[in-house]
Amino acid sequence: MSSALIFLIVAFVIVDVAMVVAWAAALRSRRVGWRPSPSDVAIGVGTCFLDTLGIGNYAQITALYKFRGHPPDELIPGTLNVGLGIPILFSAILFTTSVNVEPGLLLSMVLSAGAGAWLGAGIVSRMQRRTIQLFMGTALIVAACFFTLTNVGVLPPPGTATALGGWRFLVAVVANFVLGALMCAGIGNYAPSMALLAILGMHPLVAYPIMIGSDGVLIPVAGLRFIRSGRFSSPAAMGLTIGGIIGTLLAFPLVKTLASHLTLMRWVVIAVILYAAIAMLRSALAPGARAGAAPVVE
Questions:
Q1: Across all residues in the chain, what is the average pLDDT?
Q2: Do 298 and 218 touch, CB atoms closer than 8 A?
Q3: Are the C-beta atoms of 156 and 150 separated by less than 8 Å?
């Protein structure tokens, strides 16, 4: 195992341990409940199963919480980040140690995303959310069209590389900085990362450790912020944690199976990208959608 990968795993563990310690301290000091309901755990299992396959889970969890009526809307962002902090550690370690991607590229892109989220939050938070959604949704639909043409044989297939050099390395790192900042505006980074790396000639599976590695740092750090503010539901978060670990471990072997069939993997890429694009465009074009600044939520 390379020194870069060891450094990354240590970073994952440190931020997660810090979040767990803060959570335990909050439970003791505030004497709040923590026992999840069966539905809390079930939501964690199902959504993290899909997330591990690359579908994402923030939007699904939010929709399910709103459907059942709890936790309150103002507690949902904190519940998501606190509850998914530990499952994302499992995902990050599994993917970064099992998927063959050049360690220097992986470390550079993860750190770039973290820097983008930290330094770019103030700028992105003042941008119009609708503008971001329209731009990203349109770009992703164009990318999905290109991938479809590739799968049906009209265009040559994307590469199978696990490393980048020269200008491609620079483009990937800078773009991931931007994606890290967009995450603070509520724009997920999986589908854009997958599209970016495929265009640069990399194997689609490489997007997994890069995206999840980025989340492995960002989510628990965000969770720390919400724990300190107290704006989260501890029982619901515990359900996400328990169910999320189960869902992640169940889904991971399926990702490796898909990876052995590159054409099938590309169809998964197309489905994921279209899902993200349609979700963004629907939000942007919904009646009464706010055109104000995007909220900083991670």
A1: 79
A2: yes
A3: yes
